[in-house]
Design brief:
Helix content: 40-55%
Number of helices: 21
Distance between the termini: 133 Å
Largest sheet: 8 strands, mixed
Length: 653
């Protein structure tokens, strides 16, 4: 039995050793495939990033060419219009922050306006350092552009007065021909796109295990982990090429557009692309027919190359780990458990994927059918998604808004500042709320409460922004109604005593600063109780409304007319002398006496008022109660003197 045990143990170990050895071959192939798949996926992502960047530059150039400041200088090249163009170029540079230089060059190749970007923002360079670029390739190519075409230069390093700028600044120049209103060419807009941003983002896409590289069509490195190998053709190092370092790899890259390769144990993946063709494909809706981007030389063709060294792609291999020896020793005991765990792991992944799909469906349902509006915007503010409730709020169809409308277009001019605050909150990853006035499709205005949330990339750049939009029109209407109730008399619509005190306090402070008298009038409807007793309270209310309406017509916009209660009214005349107050009171008394109220039954009510006048020559806030008291006393004197008259209080001591 012992012999059989030893025999089968040996056989099993031999079989296991053979299986493990044979398993290592496909296992290594799996590792290679995973690495190459990762390479290809990341290179695809990098291609999309490159396309996005180049399309952004094209769109920036087109918007700038249509800018009113630029167009005004092209039409009428005056000094004032040149300043407007400078401001337009500076604003564009500051807003996007991706252009080292933006220039306007005339048809003779001379720089007319140039804006440079520095750490503290964009600025216009002095006229004395403007240069002639007539011999530059990009100027020659730009002058040959057809209408609506743009030109991309090959990537290189920026030069100033023929000398490479330090530190090195990779740059791609985009040239847009600009025309006047008659379609006649007037000059070129040249945008120096800071390609270093793209190179850094390209490098950041890849994990530490991989070494990403970019090469031009001649095999010179545009990006390499070893910085001293880059830009060899510009730095006097013609030997720094991939062809010189790895001729076999370079030869295969020349003959096969996109492939993988293993060389000396290292894994390589590469892809060739044409920068211009990529940008054109991104504009496929109209670029193929109109040829919006002018073709350039083969030096614009680049190669993406990713290298993973042998230790890095083997680093995750199970057979190199110490626990693997323990696993082999206990393989017989662990076989059943291994099968169990493999099946359990696969089932867990299946359940997890199903849960994720369910969560995604729930999220879509919550988004689309939420009881409030939702809108999703890109970093530029372009609307990329809306839900049903927002469409119902505004009266639009979905296709009218998606990818063709900016959030700013839906907001009333008075709410632009609030929306700018929202967009700033999105870019900063903050959560803020703002009230906005939105424009509906058919011209109505809708008051909404907007709350924002955002998703930022690893480099803190806005990836997507979401904004909830809640209709608060009824709430705003209620607030305004409550405000009216708090500050106005419900019958006449005039200011009540509380509002009168606030307005009077404000006027007193102004008069203390600027100087001038203050006059108060106290009004009371004569025999008002008799009107109520004879005609009813509804008729009395009509008399009070008539008094308020005629009083507002006769008073200045700065005068304050308030109802203190019952048939008592008070008028404050800022800046009016005693004599002016008397005249205003007399005019008011006479006008009301000549304004009878006609009831539905045809009856006519003639009513009069008695008015008391008091004046402060140098008003102070603490004197207001005394002023009103003196006006009341003058009013009572008018009542005692027979009513329907004006009495003036004695001047203040």
């Amino acid at each position: 039995m012992r012999k059989r045990q030893i025999k089968w143990t040996v056989i099993v170990f031999i079989l296991l050793a053979g299986i493990l050895y044979l398993g290592k071959i496909p296992y290594d192939e799996i590792l290679r495939t995973e690495v190459h798949t990762r390479h290809m996926q990341l290179m695809k992502t990098a291609s999309m990033l490159r396309q996005e960047k180049l399309l952004d530059v094209v769109q920036d150039a087109r918007r700038l060419a249509l800018n009113s400041g630029v167009k005004s200088y092209i039409e009428t090249p005056t000094a004032d219009h040149r300043n407007k163009m400078q401001r337009a170029l500076i604003n564009t540079s500051n807003v996007y922050g991706r252009y080292d230089q933006i220039r306007y060059i005339d048809l003779q190749g001379m720089e007319q306006v140039r804006v440079d970007y520095a750490d503290d923002g964009a600025y216009a360079v002095a006229d004395t350092i403007l240069q002639s670029k007539a011999d530059s390739t990009y100027v020659t190519e730009g002058l040959a552009l057809d209408e609506d075409q743009v030109y991309f230069s090959p990537i290189d390093l920026n030069r100033e007065n023929g000398t490479l700028e330090r530190p090195l600044k990779p740059v791609i120049r985009l040239v847009q021909k600009v025309t006047d209103s008659d379609g006649e060419p007037q000059g070129l807009l040249v945008l120096n796109y800071a390609a270093g941003e793209f190179l850094n983002q390209f490098r950041a896409l890849f994990p530490d295990l991989d070494q990403p590289m970019l090469l031009n069509n001649e095999g010179y490195w545009l990006l390499n982990a070893q910085a001293d190998k880059t830009w060899g053709w510009l730095l006097g190092q013609p030997q720094q090429t991939l062809g010189a370092e790895r001729p076999a790899l370079w030869k295969k890259m020349q003959t096969t557009p996109g492939q993988t390769m293993e060389l000396d144990g290292d894994l390589f993946s590469y892809q060739r692309f044409d920068a211009v063709n990529v940008a054109t494909n991104g504009l496929s809706s109209y670029a193929d027919e109109r040829k919006l981007i002018r073709g350039i030389s083969t030096s614009a063709k680049w190669f993406m190359l990713v290298q993973t060294r042998s230790p890095q792609w083997h680093v995750g291999a199970a057979y190199l780990r110490p626990w693997f020896r323990v696993f082999v020793v206990g393989l017989f005991l662990m076989a059943a458990m291994l099968v169990y765990f493999v099946i359990a792991s696969r089932e867990q992944r299946r359940v997890s994927r199903a849960a994720q799909r369910g969560q995604l469906a729930d999220f879509k349902d919550l988004y689309e059918n939420a009881p409030i509006g939702y809108v999703t915007v890109s970093a530029s503010g372009l609307i990329t998604n809306v839900n049903h409730m927002l469409l119902a709020y505004l009266g639009y169809q979905r296709e009218e808004l998606l990818n063709d409308c900016y959030f700013m277009d839906l907001v009333d001019d008075e709410s632009r500042a609030g929306l700018e605050g929202l967009m700033h909150s999105l870019g900063a990853g903050e959560h803020e709320q703002y009230r906005l006035e939105m424009r509906c499709k058919h011209g109505e205005r809708l008051t909404v409460l907007c709350s924002v949330s955002s998703r930022l990339s690893t480099s803190s750049m806005l990836t997507v922004g979401r904004c909830s939009v809640q209709d608060i029109s009824q709430q705003v209407s209620l607030e305004r109604s409550l405000e009216r109730l708090a500050y106005s008399d419900s019958l006449t619509g005039l200011a009540n005593r509380r509002h009168f005190d606030e307005l009077a306090s404000r006027e007193l402070k102004r008069l203390q600063r600027e100087g001038g008298p203050l006059t108060a009038l106290a009004l009371d409807v004569d025999r008002f109780k008799a009107v109520n007793d004879r005609y009813g309270h509804a008729a009395g209310d009509k008399v009070l409304k008539s008094l308020a309406r005629h009083g507002e017509k006769l008073l200045r916009g700065t005068d304050i007319l308030a109802r203190f209660g019952g048939e008592e009214f008070t008028v404050l005349l800022p800046g009016a002398t005693q004599e002016q107050g008397r005249n205003k009171a007399e005019a008011l008394r006479q006008a009301l006496a000549e304004a009878p109220v006609t009831l539905q039954a045809g009856e006519v009510i003639h009513y009069t008022v008695s008015i008391g006048v008091a004046t402060l020559a140098r008003p102070e806030e603490t004197q207001l109660p005394a002023l009103l008291k003196r006006a009341d006393e003058a009013l009572y004197q008018a009542k005692r003197s027979g009513r329907n008259r004006v009495c003036v209080a004695e001047p203040e001591c």
